[in-house]
Amino acid sequence: xxxxxxxxxxxxxxxxxxxxxxxxxxxxxxxxxxxxxxxxxxxxxxxxxxxxxxxxxxxxxxxxxxxxxxxxxxxxxxxxxxxxxxxxxxxxxxxxxxxxxxxxxxxxxx
Length: 110
What we know:
The protein has helices at about 10-15, 30-35, 40-45, 65-70, 95-105, and strands spanning about 5, 20-25, 50-60, 75-80, 85-90. By secondary structure, it is of the alpha/beta class. The model has no long low-confidence stretch (mean pLDDT about 90).
């Protein structure tokens, strides 16, 4: 099974330059409900590897990005298309919910 790569604040600019859809999963080691999303995000990462980049960011270790995007509730998923924030999902969601949101953004223009 694959893992969702963890990024640091300093990697955001390079990450958002990616032409694929970018999903940033904001979590924390102390966020027990967020750990339930790990297997879902791994599956999504595998299913959409050519169309979307899915990464996670620990807000305890990386506060700048979370503060810049006003992420105060975790788990949270921010979705970027061509470097622009296009959607935000807060809390726990199912694979089907994520799949629907990803498909919506893959099929839509900016």
